[in-house]
Amino acid sequence: MLQPIAKDVAAELAKQFGVCVKPVWLRRTNTATGETELISVPCGATSAAKCEPCAEANRRLRMQQIREGWHLTEEPVTTPDAPTDEQRELVEYRAVLEFARTSVVMAAEWEQVAELDAEIDQVDEQITAAGIRGSVLPGGRKDGTDGQESAPARKRSTKRRQDAPDLPRLPVANRTIPHPHIGSDGREHRDSMFLTLTLGSYGPIHSAYHRRGRVQTCECGELHGQHDPRLGTPVDPDSYDYRAAALDCIHFAKVLDRFWQNLRRAVGWNVQYAGSTEMQKRLAPHGHFAIRGALPRKLVRQVAAATYHQVWWPAHDRLVYDPDGPLPTWDATEKTYRDPDTGAALPTWDEALDAIDDDPDAEPVHVARLGTVNVKGVRGGSESAEKTIRYITKYIAKDITDAVSPDSRAQEEHMARLAVELQVLPCSPTCPNWLLYGIQPKNAKATARPGRCKGKVHQRRTLGFTGRRVLVSRQWSNKTLADHRADRKAWVKALLALSATDEQGQADDTDGPALDRYEYALASRDDPDVPPAHVHFLRKIAERQQWKAQRDAAMERLRLLSATPNQAA
């Protein structure tokens, strides 16, 4: 019984060869010949819990993305391609449909409006398929005819808080690369930076910091080892501010966005960044970022200290209703929630915000700020740069809490107390938890279950953080992940073509059939012609072995050609 099982060995070997363990099966039909074949497509999961090989492939792709855009010396190309005649015709036809729709809306001819909407949807799909990014009306129609009323946006004062230091404000130049630094040797240096942003403290925690090779004394007065079960837990759990920690987790993504805005205004050019977000041992999110160009460290710390995000939500610091007691009831006639004892209607979301707007002394219910900032210079092409890239992408294939799974009772209790706090806090204006604080959520429905919101914020695997794990600025390299995949595919094709050339270097560059000659349909795993998982793994392992042999042969040929240039010529 201790001997390994053959199917498990095949699955483990498939992971080592990078074979997707949860492939999607498709039936591909050649419209010209009518031939149908069964093909497998990788699932493309980004989480190792779902598919480890696909998640690892995505991590390596992110490494390539960070590597290509980190130490650029020339501005990335930002000028879009000129539209084709087909694209122009589609947009012109879309304009005709929009004009016709406006006319029938003014005439209240709603049947024609529905017909035009269907035609507009088809044209929008054709515009996207033609290679045009974006949409004409993102986020729904603005004229209110899509069945939803467009409420005016609420504006808050942009005056800086008195308890936040002032920041330099410069016009942001349209460039993403700083001016080169002239060193003492008279040469230009284009160094970059590695930045780590964390949140503030919520109370002393057990820690084991190293300084000059020695472990520093914890605030509890003891020296902790690297595997101490108390690491990351509060010294005094009763005085630890779990509510502030939970709120900062929820709004951490907004703080990061505000930091980059402030940094660009402070330095005067469009700073570009690429990084990821992880969870510290104390269960607070922090971000690691590669920044193109070297900035004054004093200025970066000044920007971080002056960055904050104000949460202008109704007060939710005290529970009005117990999640285990009587809760507000839904009035189907008035479509509102009422108090279970008095029957009075609870204030709506807009009414609660109006009360804040009418109060001149109103303060935000929470202010999220940054804490410790670590800055390190990195030179392009060095071993330190590659090591930093691996460090940034170390955990992006895992859930944010996988790296901080509790190993002791103290850590389990710390995570449980934070999860309990997140369970009753509202995660968004539409969160049903607002009913626990005596306020109806935005767009309230009869199906709201206060204290049991299904949002990701309240789940143990996120612990409040639901923003994007990988953050890449728009002009980092002006390449999407699909572009990077195409680059890698083109490199492999060029390498294999070179290995098959003759002495004159002429390659056979015949393309396959056009993609429009095929039609695809999803196949079920229960279909009789779909092979079992272990059989599929064995076939893919053999295929990967052939690929590896072809690649090694091509690389060996390149090595021989470079070693004997005269003979190759």
Describe this structure in words.
This protein is α+β, with helices and mostly antiparallel strands and 569 residues long. The protein has helices at 6-16, 52-70, 85-106, 110-129, 242-250, 252-267, 297-305, 349-358, 383-392, 409-424, 481-499, 533-563, 565-568; strands spanning 24-30, 36-41, 181-182, 188-189, 192-199, 210-211, 214-215, 273-279, 285-291, 308-311, 329-331, 336-338, 366-378, 470-472, 518-522. It has a six-stranded antiparallel sheet. It has a three-stranded antiparallel sheet with strand order 2-1-15, with no helix packed on it. Strands 3-4 form a two-stranded antiparallel ribbon. Helix 11 packs across helix 12 (533-563). The chain starts with 5 loop residues before the first helix and ends with a helix. 22% of the residues are buried.
What share of the residues lie within helices? 25-40%
Task: Specify the biggest β-sheet.
Answer: 6 strands, antiparallel
User: Could you tell me the mean pLDDT?
Assistant: 86
Distance between the termini: 62 Å
- Overall 3D shape: globular
Strand content: 5-15%
Spatial order of strands in the largest sheet: 10-13-5-9-8-14
Number of β-strand runs: 15
Structural class designation: alpha+beta
Low-confidence stretches: 502-513
Radius of gyration in whole Å, from Cα?
29 Å
Q: What is the chain-wise order of helices and strands?
A: HEEHHHEEEEEHHEEHEEEHEHHEHEHH
Q: How many individual helices?
A: 13
Which labels suit this protein?
alpha+beta; about 575 residues; about 35% helix; about 15% strand; 6-stranded antiparallel beta sheet
